[in-house]
Structure formats: structure tokens, C-alpha cells
User: Fold this.
Amino acid sequence: MGGFVNRHIVTANGFDEKNIPWFGNKFLTGNGYFGVRGTMEEYRKEQMCAINMAGIYDRVGDKWREPVNAPNPFYSVLYVDGVLLALPETAPKSHRQELDFYSALQMRETVWETEKGTVTLSCQRFSSMADQHLLAMRYVVTADYDCEIAVTTGIDGDVWDINGPHFASLKTGYEDGIRYVTGITGERGVTVTVKSRLLCDTPGTVTTDQYTALETVTRQVTANTPFILDTVAELTTSVDVFPPKAELSTLTYDAVKAEHVAKWKNIWDISEVSIDGDEEAEFSLNYSLYHLNCVAPRNLDGVSIGARGLSGQVYKGAVFWDTEMFMLDYYIDTDPKAAKDLLKYRIDTIGGAREKAKEYGLNGAYYAWESQDGGYEGCSDYNVVDVFTKRPMRTYFRDKQYHVSAAIVYGFMKYLKGTGDYSIIDEGGLSVILECAQMYRSLLLKKADSDWYEIHDVVGPDEYHERVNNNAYTNRMAKFVFETALSMIAYAKEKGLKTDYDLDSIAAMCKESAEHMYVPQMNENGLIEQFDGYFGLEDASVEEVRSRLLDPKEYWGGAYGVAADTQVLKQADVVALLSMFREEYSVDVMRKNWEYYEPRTEHGSSLSACMYSLLSCYIGNPDDAYPLFMKSANADLLPAGKEWIGLIYIGGTHPAAQGGAWIVMVKGFAGISAKDGKLTAEPKLPKGWKELRFKMMYQGKLYQIIARQDGAEIKEIEQQG
Assistant:
């Protein structure tokens, strides 16, 4: 892990250029409005430096639409006696990078050896959580000899793009002590403006060009005298829903930092987890929660969380089923308003889901596999590049991942159970649920001599096997949607909700569909077949299938993938089904399926390990669950995992894995569930864990949970603020 100084500081010592992409994710700061990659101040687009914005997309020509990266106000380059000192060009004597994730402060200290002595560059910076338009940096240079120090600092508008450039025009300038760069996106004309103010007691010289607004400050310094430059910056757009809280000209680094740190303290007062007996697990889990707090779209309208959070343009910044299935629980438990905002995104984007349903000849709402602004589908038909022919490969992620709509309905029900706040149903949630049910109804098939409805030609959570029939997970989730629609129709009638839907007709349809929905059951060995014909595929091991790769970047699935004709799967599928509907299956059945499917799972997705970990807890094996839990919690702490699908880069942070770690901790290790409106706990702690302590919200109240090997305490506590 690189070691850590205390319970909240991630540290990496030494400089290795190959770590630049990974460290950009590992040391990220963010506030939901934007995310700042943890790159060094002298880095530019070649080092994947980026400030990734939430909910603002652009498309250039026929390239993929993706989120926009803003101009970078932290760009700074150091010269000492006219000699450039910068990474990666100038090898350092020593280098340390840190992230204090309790205060959300990124720090670096780099030492260079020169002919006259050593020069030390220290920097601290953050993305303000108190005023989400603000960023700030303190840049300090110290030499152990007399010298001339020159720092060129300011705004770099020549940003990293994967499928850009996204600014059709840029305007740069300097006015009344404020530098600025304004970009206008090409597709929709959204204006993105970054302003910055340098606070330094030495006057500088300002220069602007097509891309940058920079200021160079030069000073003769004596040995061991720090040269300090503070920057306070502001990021705004023409589509903002809230303004900055103060004028940039009135702000100081220390004042902005104090408010930022205080805001983070309030967040941690609810979300911090304590694990007595396992310092590493405590550290990893809290680091995961830090990232979830960084990407929560607080105070934003119509914005959700992309599969790679705010770490860049990877996966087109699209919102997947990950959000409702793996992230939503954390926000329900710690910040219900953020959870509601995530679900309101699905309400606001139902228009895109209706359009997609029509495209495929379906009724109702078919939510996008890769949802962007408006809920429109961002996924292409050819989503993977063949490593051998360099040609795009036809995949069916866009067409056949029908389980997405069910995941959204499942998210609504988790929210209702966790908060008791049914206003979300009145505000559009009912439409989402009813139209998802209509979509599933239009998928149903019935053989001439059968009483059961089937769903054919799908891609389940295991993406390596495409266009299969009767995927157990998909069929059970469809049944769940029908059942949920029935209960929400009953609620609507009871409350007298005004609606344009024919509730009686839809209720009859849902009742008949649920009663006749075919859901694969266990065979004589207690196993549930993942889809029709799965058990007849080659039963090869994961390692054997991996050995068949001719190129490490080769895609395992699709028509010609090495896993396609084998039982090797990408991620939890049947195991996800069992984890979500555990009350319908015996512990013995869950155990047999865990033991069968886990050795056949490549865990090629960061979503997989947490589902296996959770089911392992449910069958009473917390020690088997532990390494899978740590795999989820360490998704961004340890060296980057799979970063390529074919020739497509997919690196970035993993908020779904981080949310999955929270789910395992709460539902698995602490054993929290709700019965008759009250929380209960049946802890299943791993060996060595003496006590697990955390807080969570339930039905509008805050609770302190203390789980031990021999039992648990659940105590209602007073909410602060």
C-alpha cells in the first residue's frame, strides 16, 4: 500500500513515471461538482492532468461523447537560477506524495539536488467542499543556498481529452488581479470559466496566449528562506445551479482551507468507521468512503455518478447500473439527500429511457447502459476494439443489458426501506417503476405448450456470455419489478395520487406477469444454472482460459472471446441474485452456488468481489469474505488492476467497488437488516476483529452501531447540526 503515516494519510515515496496515471486516481480530490486528478502541479495533458466536471458532456464529430475537463488553475513550473526543476523531466533526489483523506488535502514534497545544494518544493492543495466552486493551493519553494527562484503559475487551458478537443473556442485574459480562461463547448455551447488569483508579496509578470493565463514571479532568496505563493481559484459554468458563495478577490488560502476542513469534519462525523483489531482494513475502508464523499453530486440537479466517478473521461463519464446497485446504499445510510438526488436523476432522465425503449420496439422505459445527460444512451454498437485487426468489435452491451432498468427500480426500493421517504414516488418515482414494468412485459415470451414467461437474447451481469436465454438474474429482477409495481400501485391508490396511468390495467398485467415469470431454480445438486445451456459449456479454469490469450489486452467475451464458450464468467451473476434475494434460498443452496461459481469467476470487474464477499458472510464464512472485501476496499489503493478492454483505456477510480465495501461491512460483517421498521444485527466478524463501530441513518434517525464477535449494540443518537 506504500505505508501510511497515520489513520488518514495515504503516502507514496519515490518517483516512478509509470505510476503517473494510477496516482492521478489514487490521490484525487473532489467535491461532487468536479474532481481534480492527483497529478503534480507541473504536469500537463501528457500526464493525464485533469479537472473532470460532473454532468457536462460534449461530443466532437463522430467520436464518443464524454464529460468535459476544465482548464487547470494549479499549473506551476519552477526554475532555480534559470534551470528547470520539474517532474518527470528532472529526476528528483527524493519525492513524496500524500493525501490526507480526513481533511481532503493533497500534498507533495520533492527535493532536487543541484550543483549548489538542494531545492525543496512543497505543495498543498484541495477542492473546496464548503464552496464547491473553489480550489486552492499553497506552493512553497526552499533552497539551502542563496539563489534566484522563478515560478510560472496560472491556468492551463490546453487540457487532456480522450475524444476532444471539447472547447470550440478559448478566451484568456487578466483583469484586476484575476487571471481567467473561458472555454465554450462545441456541441451545446456551455461556457466553462476558471479564474485564479495569486497571493504573493512579490509582484509578477502576466502573460496570456491561446491556451494559458500565466504569471511569473521571480525573487532572490537567501538560504533556507521559504518562498510562498498562494492561489485561490474559482470554477463556474453557464449551467450552474448555484453561485459561488464569495467574491474571489476577497478570499485567502487559509480562510478557504479552514471552511473546507470543517465541512469534511462534519461529513466524517457520520461516515467514519472504526475497526478495533484491523488497522489496515479500517484504513482501506475509510479511504473508500473518502472517494464516495468526493463524488456525491451534492447541490446539483439532474446529475448522478459515473462508473469512474470524477477521475476523468473514461467510460465516457456515463452512469451505469453501478450507481443504484453498489453506491446508493452508502448515501442512503449516511446522506439520504444525496441518495434522493441520485434517484431524481433517473426521474429526470426517463425521457431518454423512453426513447431507447422505442428504438428497440419496447414499451415503457429502457434505461441506458451508459447514461449521459438526458438519460440518452452513450454506448455504441461497436464498443471494443479488436487487438489483432484493430477493428471495432460488435458487442451487445447497449442492446441486451435489460437488467439495468430493474437495478433502478431496486434502487428506489432500497431508498424507501432505508429512509421511509415516499415523496420520491410522488415526485416521479411511480412513473419510473411503472414504465420499467411495461418494458419488461414487452420482453416476455411464452412457448406454445408452456405456462411460463421467459426472457431470451440477453446479456446478464456476466458480460462474457452474450445473447443468452433465461439469465437467472435478469428473470428474477424482472419478476421483482412486476412485484414492486404492484406494491406502488397499491400505495398510489391509498394516497390518492393523481396519475395519467391506468393503474388497474397495469396492476393486472404485473400480477399476471409476476405469477408466470420463469425463474431458474436449483437442480438436483442445489445449483442454479446461470442461463440456459451454461452447464453444457466447457468447464475450464480461469487460469486455463487466461493461458489462451494471445495478447494481454484481448477481450475475453463476445463472439470470439476466450471465455465465451466456457463456464468462466467475468463477475458475480447468480451470486448477485442470491445476495439480493437471500430470504428465498437456504444457506445450503447459497453455499453450494458460492463454491461452484467463485472458482469460475475471473473477477474482471471491480463490481464482482463485493458480491461474493457479501454472500460469503450470509453463509457464515466471514474469513472467506475478508480477502474479497479487501479487494473492493483496496481497488484504488493498490496498483491498478485491469485498465484495458481491447485497445480502450478504462482506468480511473472505482466508486462501485468502494460502495460495495460499505455494503459488505454493513450487511455482511455487522449483519444489519431491518425487521418491522427496526434495525437488527447479527454480526459475522472476521478473525481478529474485536469491534466494528460506525453510524448509519435509518428511517430519518441516526444510529450508533457497535458489532463484536459475540453480539451487537444499536443505539439511537442525536444528529449534530
Summary: Residues 364 and 435 are 4 Å apart (CA to CA).
